[in-house]
Each structure stands twice: as structure tokens, then as C-alpha cells.
Write a structure and sequence with these properties.
Elements lengths: L15 H33 L2 H5 L13 H6 L5 H29 L8 H10 L7 H10 L17 H12 L3 H9 L4 H12 L1 H17 L2 H6 L8 H10 L1 H10 L3 H7 L5 H32 L6
Helix pairs in contact: 1-15, 4-7, 4-10, 10-15, 12-15, 13-15
């Protein structure tokens, strides 16, 4: 092989304009990152600082007189532990069911042998644009005996048309020869799904999982509409009611403590501290979970978007 046939990577020498561009780029995106991150940082430092300083608006950049009594007292509120279990349960089970349903339907809609495949696909797509409305939906849930049950959080959210479309597009990007070779070797429909389609679709399934988990964790309207049993209240709905009653809640926290605690909390617990603490409790789990799926997120969104 001749030297001239070998492709040697040529290093591009950066000019002064390139350096200026990179510096401006880093500064702009760094500033944008700070703008996005500061609200979360503000919530955290105000929830762990002295409550009288937080209420006065003196905590802006650095926490002062750090204490964690707010979290201790908020976690003592009635019904909070049960609500956490309900929210965690609906998030895990709901996300798992949504991912599996999206994967299976997305795979099935790529199968030419599926009975009336195009008809069923169009029916699912139509539901993205039209729905019966709130009252018919409530009557449907009541007729199915799902109101005041845990499954009202899970079943209506299993099939999400947009997720199905995303998975279908992704599966279509997988080489057809893989499925044909497996079918020639005697692999049935479910074997091809579990052995080929499912393992090959990890990026898009991770994307669907984070969408479903965030939607389940943040949802509170379904509790407002379908649930009257306090044992089935989700964390989001319970904290939503607490946020709307922050002033009375601060008084409640004081009244539920010991005599010594009440004496201390009289100058510490404020509506502002309650709001800040509750907001952190709501947001923090998603902040920890999202980075775990981030590496799959962009890949799952982009793969299958371009054909040819």
C-alpha cells in the first residue's frame, strides 16, 4: 500500500475567529445552563436555610444557618408516607406497562401479516387529536369500576399513541434481514419480538420510559378527578393541596410537635419554608432519575428519523 493511499487525518489549525467562536459558545451555553439550574438551586438553599431568613428573602446565592428540620417536619405530615408509596408504585408499574405496550404495538404495526394493520394504526393515531372529553371519560372509568382504585392510574395511560409511533419508526430502522433470518430458522412472532426487536430498541425504549415515568410522577389531575379515598392520594396531589394551604400547614406542623419543638418552630416554620421544602421533595427524584436515561434520550429520538 502506498503512502498516498493512506488517509491521514488532517488537523485543522484554529484561527483567532475559531477561538472567539468557541469562547462565545461556552459563555452563552454556560449562562443558559446557570439560568436553568438556578431555580432548583434556589429552592434547595431556601429549604435548608433558617426559615426566618428565607421568609425575609435574604437567601439568594449561599445558604445561611443550615438546618434540615423542614424536611423532618414535612415527612411527619399525615398521609405522606402512603402517598409516596402510591406515587412510586404508579411510576414504576405505569412506566413498565407503557414501555411494554409501546414496544409490542410498535413492533406489531411493522408486521405486514398483522390483520388490518393500517386500520388499527390509524385508529390509534386519531386518538392523538380527538377525545371524548372529561365527563365521558369519568363515566367510562366509573362504569369499568376503576374509580377509587389504584389501577385508574395505570390502565388509561398504558397505550400512548405518540410513544407507539416513535417505537414503530425505530423498529422500521432495524434491518429486515434480521427478522427474515429468524423467521426462516423457525422463530415465531413472540420470539422475534423478545429476541430481536426488544433488545435492539433499547435507546427508544429508554426514551419512552423517561417520558412515562415523568408523566406518572408529575400527574395529580387524575387523583383530583377519580379518587376520593385518601389512602390512594398520590404524592403530587397531596403536596398540591399542601401548597395551597401553606399558611395553615405551618401552624399544623407546629401543633404536631413536642413542647420543645413547638418553641423552636414558632420562629422557624413559615409558609415560604413549607412551599420550598415541598417543591424540592417533588422535583428531586426526577433530577436524580433523568441523568440515568440521558445517554439514551437523544439517540432514541434521532435513530429512525432519517430513511435511506
Amino acid at each position: 500500500m502506498k503512502k498516498e493511499d493512506i488517509d491521514i487525518p488532517v488537523k485543522h489549525k484554529l484561527t483567532s475567529r475559531d477561538y472567539v467562536f468557541h469562547i462565545c459558545n461556552y459563555l452563552i451555553f454556560g449562562l443558559f445552563t446557570l439560568i436553568c439550574a438556578y431555580p432548583f438551586y434556589y429552592l434547595i438553599i431556601n429549604s435548608i436555610s433558617a426559615n426566618n431568613l428565607s421568609a425575609a428573602g435574604d437567601i439568594n446565592f449561599i445558604p445561611k444557618e443550615i438546618q434540615f428540620q423542614n424536611y423532618i417536619e414535612v415527612f411527619k405530615l399525615s398521609g405522606l408516607s402512603t402517598a409516596v408509596l402510591v406515587s412510586v408504585g404508579r411510576t414504576v408499574i405505569g412506566a413498565a406497562c407503557t414501555v411494554f405496550a409501546s414496544a409490542f404495538l410498535g413492533f406489531m404495526f411493522t408486521q405486514e401479516k398483522m390483520w388490518h394493520r393500517k386500520l388499527w394504526y390509524r385508529i390509534i393515531v386519531i386518538t392523538m387529536y380527538f377525545n371524548a372529553g372529561l365527563i365521558p371519560m369519568f363515566m367510562t372509568m366509573k362504569t369499568l369500576h376503576l374509580t377509587n382504585t389504584f389501577w385508574v392510574y395505570i390502565i388509561p395511560a398504558i397505550v400512548q399513541p405518540f410513544n407507539v409511533i416513535m417505537v414503530k419508526t425505530y423498529v422500521e430502522s432495524i434491518p429486515v434481514s434480521l427478522f427474515e433470518a429468524a423467521e426462516i430458522d423457525g422463530a415465531g412472532l413472540f420470539t422475534r419480538f423478545f429476541k430481536i426487536a426488544l433488545p435492539s430498541s433499547t435507546p427508544i425504549l429508554a426514551t419512552v420510559a423517561i417520558w412515562a415515568a415523568v408523566a406518572q410522577w408529575n400527574s395529580f389531575q387524575d387523583t383530583l378527578i377519580y379518587i376520593t379515598d385518601q389512602k390512594l392520594y398520590s404524592l403530587q396531589y397531596l403536596l398540591y393541596t399542601y401548597l395551597n394551604q401553606a399558611s395553615s400547614l405551618a401552624t399544623l406542623v407546629k401543633s404536631t410537635g413536642s413542647v420543645q419543638a413547638v418553641a423552636n418552630l414558632a420562629t422557624q416554620q413559615t409558609p415560604t419554608s413549607i412551599r420550598m421544602t415541598i417543591s424540592v421533595i417533588v422535583v428531586l427524584p426526577i433530577l436524580f432519575i433523568y441523568p440515568m436515561f440521558q445517554k439514551h434520550f437523544v439517540k432514541g429520538m434521532m435513530i429512525g428519523a432519517v430513511k435511506g
